[in-house]
């Protein structure tokens, strides 16, 4: 098991979307052109770091997975995709093979687009800084 970082979780989310929706385009960031019905956009929202006891810390990256339905499908299509996404994004696999579980999944429909806020909290090892031998004082 390797150290899991923010980019690996992001890649795991986009890979899960590619597997579940092979015909859809998966974007990341601002879309200026070429947006089509059925496309996804994955935006990082927050990346929290909380120190824990000992040498552990909790990271919680949160992403906004946006789905753009067709005009004909509208809210019905968005709700159908939201139901699918709840299962597709439940557990993702990073490119390194690590599995990360989604513990928060909230959906809203704003401006005719489906927004799914997904959070993947996980623990990481934080090594304690060691004093080099040359800095130690002998009494």
Q: Helix and strand succession? A: HEEEHEEEEE
What average pLDDT do the residues reach? Answer: 86
Q: What structural category do the secondary elements indicate?
A: alpha+beta
Helix content: 10-25%
Number of strands: 8
Total helices: the number is 2
Rg is 19 Å
N- to C-terminal distance: 42 Å
Description:
By secondary structure, this protein is of the alpha+beta class. It has two helices and eight strands; from the N terminus they run αβββαβββββ. The strands form two sheets. Strands 1, 2, 3, 6, 7 and 8 form a six-stranded mixed beta sheet that branches. Strands 4-5 form a two-stranded antiparallel sheet. It is elongated.
Brief account:
The chain is an alpha+beta fold. It contains 2 helices and 8 strands; from the N terminus they run H-E-E-E-H-E-E-E-E-E.
Please name the defining characteristics of this protein.
single chain, 139 residues, alpha+beta, 6-stranded mixed sheet, two-stranded antiparallel sheet, 2 helices, 8 strands, 22% helix
